[in-house]
Amino acid sequence: MKRKQVFLFSMALSMLLLTSCVSVPRATVTLSGELSQMIVHSRQSHLQLLDQYTAMRKAEVDRFLEEEYIPAFTGRFVRESGVLHNIQAANTDEAKGAEILEFAVAALPVIYQERAVMMQAVDEMDKLIRTSIEAHYQQMLQTNQALTAYLGSAADVVQTREELQRQLRVNVDTLIPLDKMNKVMEKMLQAGAKAEDIPVLLEDFKEKLNEVKDGKTK
Q1: pLDDT tens, 97-150?
Q2: How many structural domains comprise the chain?
Q3: Which of 140, 158, 183, 196 is the most buried (most CB within 10 A)?
């Protein structure tokens, strides 16, 4: 549905841009103004898509922690700390409880820190993509508003028209590079991944995002 809306939007604007700059009907000026609202709605749709995707990735982080990281970490922690031996050697329930509490106090901060680092990485990638989307549509909106003003004064709109036509060639995969975010997530959630490796993955993501924005990669 969203792709259809973008297509209809592009068709409508293309028809507008074919209008002669010598004689500009009032309806054309009105349509140009309405296109600004279409740009705003398209921007909102892309941001909503990003919101939904980010929520899915955060849920995936929690699933990974619950099903993979915490069991593996707990087993390793128990073996290396000797807490299981201490619990078995405790003579009373109170002593056993104290050992378990000591284990929890030592283990939980590590688990919470791992989750915080992963969630922060997801938020950082979301922020980078969100900024890219906002900048794209802001430029598009400003160009169309300039076109509307030119149409209203019956001025020459060739240069503005060409700029807007260029911006209309929206590649959703470039604007919202979820495939690159997916690759970072896969590496981050794979067995044996370390929290200290995540900043390196984020820097790689930033570089690839900049390459896409500069048109160096597809």
Answers
A1: 787 788 888 888 999 999 999 999 999 989 988 988 888 888 877 777 776 666
A2: 1
A3: 140
DSSP per position, 174-210: HHS-HHHHHHHHHHHTSTT--GGGHHHHHHHHHHHHH
The total number of residues written for the chain in this structure: 218
Q: CA-CA distance, 16 to 20, in Å (whole number)?
A: 9
Q: Is residue 134 part of a domain?
A: yes
Q: Is 218 within a domain?
A: no
> How far is 107 from 101, CA to CA, in rounded Å?
10
195 is in which domain, residue-wise? 2-213
Residue with tokens 């900043």: 199
Residue 182: alpha-carbon gap to chain centroid: 10
User: Tokens 């990485």 sit at which residue?
Assistant: 121
Closest CA to 201 of 122, 134, 106: 122
What one-character DSSP code corresponds to residue 154? T
- Cβ–Cβ < 8 Å for 119, 61: yes
